[in-house]
Amino acid sequence: MGAVGIVKLSGNDSIEIASKVCRLRSGKEIKKLPSFKLALCDVIDNNNKALDEGLVVLMREPFSYTRENVVEIQVHSSPLIIQKIIQICINKGARLAEPGEFTKRAFLNGRISLNQAESVAEIVKVQSEKALYSLYKNLRGMFGEKISEWQKGLAFIQAKIQVECDFSDRIGTTDLQATFAKEINTIRQNIRKQYDRSKKFQNLQNGLLVVICGKPNVGKSSLLNAIIGKERSIVTPIPGTTRDAIEELFLIEGFPFRFVDTAGIRESQSYIEKIGIDKTKKYLEEAHLVIVIFDQSQEINKEDYTLVDLVRKKPHIIVLNKSDLPSKIEIKDVNELYPQEKIIKISALSGKGIDRLLDQIVEKVQLIKDNYDEDYLAFNFRQQNELFKASTFLEQAQKSLEEGFPIDVVSIDIDEALRCLKRINGEDIDEKVVDSIFNNFCVGK
């Protein structure tokens, strides 16, 4: 629980309602307060009794978040106090906000675009530093500006096509078709690049799946604990202790990684352990990266060979654990199983070699090297879908021109692409779609 709780009012009557709820210590009327200046007040109940002291601030239209008159009442963050103030405001004529209603009003009143509004919802649940910086740029309208730039480019092409159709007898000429095809392709490539990078970034934002696997008792659970810096998995000398997968989120270079400690793979008669091994195999199928652990104090056996086929097609890192113990494994034997792979020696118990392992993880996952924080990205399915459709329509327009269709024919596909881009910023969009977007917001946004 924080130290300060805030009750926010927005709308034509917000200042009048606030004047019935707050009594300024200065004795002045609230409606005479200048905008954006905090004033000390007592919050009074329906019987004119003070129930808390706090601060009140006015943000007059149009210079507020919603472009309406907004009042914030800042008090001690007791749930009882907050609930009492909300009820008093309702008694004085206010109503509870619907989910996302403040941001919805900001959109409907033209303060922000729809993709900016969606960035508000995304920034609340962001899990990585890189996403945070990109979302901030979206919130500032930079992604919307890029969309508008593409819209202007396509509109200019449309205008030139219209001129040629109205005043020229060259509509079907090859040179015109080639010129327009080139211009369309340039915009299409930029849109497609934006779509591809957004999809890749979404995978990163959701957390890259790193599966820790090996035969029983090689130190998988100890490694997970060493990476995240706390005891998350149970560690015992008894093989087969981990029966179910244990997953932990961990940030590396600003991106979330989902590290999974899995059940050791071996032949087992235990029904429960078999279920755990089956889960391990499913995780391996979905993994972005696999860490294969050997216990260097034990010789390689058939259980180690079993893993080779399971991880062969996945990016993987080979780890020799228990480097603090005498080695019974020859490096050449490991290289025979996993040719051309670097082998990292660690001690999960002491932490030796863990930093080198994390560096190797970053090196293996090439996507993380891309400087995503320089991009303005589409962060949700709706935006990505509109980018994909716009790219597809432009691809069709380009193809039509290259196949010799008259230039006026491609106008239809360009119009469709323009509509897709407009919908990203909230232009030409169905009211039901807008409602569904804001219904997913939390109350207070």
TrEMBL record:
<keyword id="KW-0342">GTP-binding</keyword>
<feature type="binding site">
    <location>
        <begin position="236"/>
        <end position="242"/>
    </location>
    <ligand>
        <name>GTP</name>
    </ligand>
</feature>
<dbReference type="InterPro" id="IPR005225">
    <property type="entry name" value="Small_GTP-bd"/>
</dbReference>
<feature type="binding site">
    <location>
        <position position="217"/>
    </location>
    <ligand>
        <name>K(+)</name>
    </ligand>
</feature>
<dbReference type="InterPro" id="IPR006073">
    <property type="entry name" value="GTP-bd"/>
</dbReference>
<feature type="binding site">
    <location>
        <position position="111"/>
    </location>
    <ligand>
        <name>(6S)-5-formyl-5,6,7,8-tetrahydrofolate</name>
    </ligand>
</feature>
<feature type="binding site">
    <location>
        <begin position="261"/>
        <end position="264"/>
    </location>
    <ligand>
        <name>GTP</name>
    </ligand>
</feature>
<dbReference type="GO" id="GO:0002098">
    <property type="term" value="P:tRNA wobble uridine modification"/>
</dbReference>
<dbReference type="InterPro" id="IPR031168">
    <property type="entry name" value="G_TrmE"/>
</dbReference>
<feature type="binding site">
    <location>
        <position position="238"/>
    </location>
    <ligand>
        <name>K(+)</name>
    </ligand>
</feature>
<dbReference type="GO" id="GO:0046872">
    <property type="term" value="F:metal ion binding"/>
</dbReference>
<dbReference type="InterPro" id="IPR027417">
    <property type="entry name" value="P-loop_NTPase"/>
</dbReference>
<keyword id="KW-0819">tRNA processing</keyword>
<dbReference type="InterPro" id="IPR025867">
    <property type="entry name" value="MnmE_helical"/>
</dbReference>
<keyword id="KW-0963">Cytoplasm</keyword>
<feature type="binding site">
    <location>
        <position position="72"/>
    </location>
    <ligand>
        <name>(6S)-5-formyl-5,6,7,8-tetrahydrofolate</name>
    </ligand>
</feature>
<keyword id="KW-0630">Potassium</keyword>
<dbReference type="GO" id="GO:0005829">
    <property type="term" value="C:cytosol"/>
</dbReference>
<dbReference type="Pfam" id="PF01926">
    <property type="entry name" value="MMR_HSR1"/>
</dbReference>
<dbReference type="Pfam" id="PF12631">
    <property type="entry name" value="MnmE_helical"/>
</dbReference>
<keyword id="KW-0479">Metal-binding</keyword>
<dbReference type="InterPro" id="IPR027368">
    <property type="entry name" value="MnmE_dom2"/>
</dbReference>
<keyword id="KW-0460">Magnesium</keyword>
<feature type="binding site">
    <location>
        <position position="236"/>
    </location>
    <ligand>
        <name>K(+)</name>
    </ligand>
</feature>
<dbReference type="GO" id="GO:0003924">
    <property type="term" value="F:GTPase activity"/>
</dbReference>
<feature type="binding site">
    <location>
        <position position="242"/>
    </location>
    <ligand>
        <name>Mg(2+)</name>
    </ligand>
</feature>
<feature type="binding site">
    <location>
        <position position="8"/>
    </location>
    <ligand>
        <name>(6S)-5-formyl-5,6,7,8-tetrahydrofolate</name>
    </ligand>
</feature>
<protein>
    <recommendedName>
        <fullName>tRNA modification GTPase MnmE</fullName>
        <ecNumber>3.6.-.-</ecNumber>
    </recommendedName>
</protein>
<keyword id="KW-0378">Hydrolase</keyword>
<feature type="domain" description="TrmE-type G">
    <location>
        <begin position="207"/>
        <end position="366"/>
    </location>
</feature>
<dbReference type="GO" id="GO:0005525">
    <property type="term" value="F:GTP binding"/>
</dbReference>
<dbReference type="InterPro" id="IPR018948">
    <property type="entry name" value="GTP-bd_TrmE_N"/>
</dbReference>
<feature type="binding site">
    <location>
        <position position="241"/>
    </location>
    <ligand>
        <name>K(+)</name>
    </ligand>
</feature>
<feature type="binding site">
    <location>
        <position position="221"/>
    </location>
    <ligand>
        <name>Mg(2+)</name>
    </ligand>
</feature>
<comment type="function">
    <text>Exhibits a very high intrinsic GTPase hydrolysis rate. Involved in the addition of a carboxymethylaminomethyl (cmnm) group at the wobble position (U34) of certain tRNAs, forming tRNA-cmnm(5)s(2)U34.</text>
</comment>
<dbReference type="InterPro" id="IPR004520">
    <property type="entry name" value="GTPase_MnmE"/>
</dbReference>
<feature type="binding site">
    <location>
        <position position="445"/>
    </location>
    <ligand>
        <name>(6S)-5-formyl-5,6,7,8-tetrahydrofolate</name>
    </ligand>
</feature>
<dbReference type="Pfam" id="PF10396">
    <property type="entry name" value="TrmE_N"/>
</dbReference>
<dbReference type="GO" id="GO:0030488">
    <property type="term" value="P:tRNA methylation"/>
</dbReference>
<dbReference type="InterPro" id="IPR027266">
    <property type="entry name" value="TrmE/GcvT-like"/>
</dbReference>
<comment type="similarity">
    <text>Belongs to the TRAFAC class TrmE-Era-EngA-EngB-Septin-like GTPase superfamily. TrmE GTPase family.</text>
</comment>
<keyword id="KW-0547">Nucleotide-binding</keyword>
